[in-house]
Design brief:
binds calcium ion, binds adenosine-2'-monophosphate, 5-stranded mixed β-sheet, 7-stranded mixed β-sheet
Length: 259
């Protein structure tokens, strides 16, 4: 079955609009915060409630689709056959808890492993980016200018804090070669900055639902999203991710050290 992307775009805009209202509402009552794998890895009642909310919306509209979401209410996905929705109900949970800003909701829709559509909601800025390989990127339903390709030295680079602190993949040298480093603590906000032309790349260690939406939207303008050795992302596994516009991507690949 081929997805009707116009219908999907309208549905995602509506569902994310409702999600946003629910999240803002929940922020008026005390959060329940739980620690997952360690003290930097949190989940809240709002992450879980939004995962449930969006899962119900998706399955009501697409009963045959499968959902790979971070706060797993559905069965884990072990293959990419058919329609798979990658769902991150709150991306940047630490920011959500500590900053009440700089967090996103992300949905990436794939068919038989191929990206078809993505949506990134920046909740506090009330901005939704949508798009896909065959759908021009939009912000709140309005066409965006496509980001300009720049060499690494001429653009800002995003990075994950831990990777930079521990200099994984030689990221300190890579980022030093750029115009400057930005660290937001949300993969969604980093991809949004690339799509909006504010930065040229991002290096992190990510889960499939962190990458799915940004990779789908970025495919429209040649955004390179790969493992550090240039291999394709396996959407069933976490791993290091290099995302960059083509010229910067080439510069990064020359400097990267795969350990
Ligand atoms: P999350 O908030 O949805 O977990 C910075 O922490 C970025 O990396 C966020 O986008 C975060 O997504 C993502 N991330 C992926 N795996 C993580 C982990 N184990 N701990 C913290 N953040 C993680
Ligand atoms: Ca998490
Ligand atoms: Ca995430
Ligand atoms: Ca999350």
């Amino acid at each position: 079955m081929m997805l009707d992307l116009k219908r999907l775009e309208n549905e995602l805009m509506a569902w994310l609009g409702e999600s946003r209202v629910r999240i803002l509402d929940a922020m008026n009552t005390p959060l329940h915060v739980d620690v997952k794998s360690g003290r930097n890895d949190l989940v809240t009642n709002v992450d879980k409630a939004n995962q449930r909310f969006l899962t119900n919306k998706i399955l009501a509209a697409y009963p045959d689709a499968r959902i790979e979401g971070e706060e797993g209410t559905a069965e884990k996905v072990h293959d990419l056959a058919g329609t798979v929705f990658f769902l991150d109900p709150i991306d940047g949970t630490m920011n959500f808890v500590k900053q009440h800003a700089n967090f996103a909701v992300m949905i990436g829709v794939y068919e038989n492993g191929a990206p078809r559509f993505g949506a990134i909601l920046d909740v506090m800025r009330n901005e939704v980016l949508t798009g896909g390989p065959t759908v021009a990127p939009k912000r709140n339903g309005r066409r965006l200018p496509l980001p300009k390709d720049h060499e690494l030295k001429d653009g800002l680079m995003g990075a994950s804090g831990p990777l930079l602190i521990h200099n994984k993949l030689n990221v300190q040298v890579i980022n030093e070669a750029s115009s400057g480093t930005r660290i937001t603590g949300s993969a969604g906000i980093e991809f949004k900055a690339i799509i909006e032309g504010q930065q040229i790349g991002y290096i992190s260690y990510l889960q499939p639902w962190d990458v799915a939406a940004g990779m789908a939207i970025g495919a429209h303008f040649g955004l390179q999203v790969t493992r550090p050795d240039g291999k394709a992302i396996n959407m069933l596994e976490p791993g290091f991710v290099v995302a960059a516009l083509p010229s910067a991507y080439r510069d990064i690949r020359k400097l990267i050290v795969v350990d």
